Amino acid sequence: MDQRNLGPLTVPAIGLGCMGMSAFYGTTDEGEAIATIHRALELGCNFLDTAEMYGPYENEKLLGKALEGRRDEVVLATKLGIVADPDDPKKRGLDGSPENVRRSIDGSLERLGTDHVDLYYLHRVDPNTPIEDTVGAMAELVEEGKVRNIGLSEASADTLRRASEVHQIAALQTEYSLWSRDVEKEILPTAR
């Protein structure tokens, strides 16, 4: 499979987003999901994307099972920052606080059955926490070896610039399609 550079990471041109394997699209089948992940790995698609809020938490647990004994074969990305209300998982909020950054990575690593993730995204920017504080806490996780690279998701060009002043941002996950090309104006030039 063709490879691409994603910041300092080398990933296949096609990654596997695992969200729908445990949430959002109706009932799921764990055996089928694990078989899909294993088949993707066989085909060279070893860039897997998840998030703590998928399920919530269930998708990371699923990947932990699927990757048991195979962690070194994958480039693993997960996300933090969208939090579900324990009493009503359909109610969600944002938490980019340094305390949540640390709490989230520790939970993600446990659920994924690994000691590090290759790419750790802030899923959505928390308007109540300066991006510098969030990325500063994420940078500490890089220093500790729990995270290899930092990414942002759905962030503005200004937020990307401010975050980059704190630590290198390896990836920005954002909508880009034939229908949504707004990122060409500011996001792509900033990312370059």
Question: Mind sketching the topology for me?
Answer:
Elements: E1 3-6, E2 9-12, E3 16-17, H1 30-42, E4 47-49, H2 58-66, E5 75-80, E6 82-85, E7 88-94, H3 98-112, E8 119-122, H4 131-144, E9 150-153, H5 157-166, E10 171-173, H6 187-191
Parallel strand pairs: 3-4, 4-5, 5-8, 8-9, 9-10
Antiparallel strand pairs: 1-2, 6-7
Helix pairs in contact: 1-2, 3-4, 4-5
Radius of gyration: 16 Å
Instruction: Give the overall shape, derived from the CA principal axes.
Output: globular
Let me know the CATH homologous superfamily.
Answer: NADP-dependent oxidoreductase domain
What is the helix tally? 6
**Helix-strand pattern:** EEEHEHEEEHEHEHEH
Main sheet record? 6 strands, parallel
How would you explain this protein's 3D organization?
The chain contains six helices and ten strands. The protein has 192 residues and is an alpha/beta fold. Helix 4 packs across helix 5 (157-166). The chain is globular, with a radius of gyration of 16 Å. 34% of the residues are buried. The model has no long low-confidence stretch (mean pLDDT 95).
Short description:
Helices cover 34% and strands 21% of the residues. By secondary structure, the protein is α/β, with parallel strands linked by helices. The strands form three sheets. A six-stranded parallel beta sheet has the order 3-4-5-8-9-10, covered by helices on one side. A two-stranded antiparallel ribbon has the order 1-2. It has a two-stranded antiparallel ribbon with strand order 6-7.
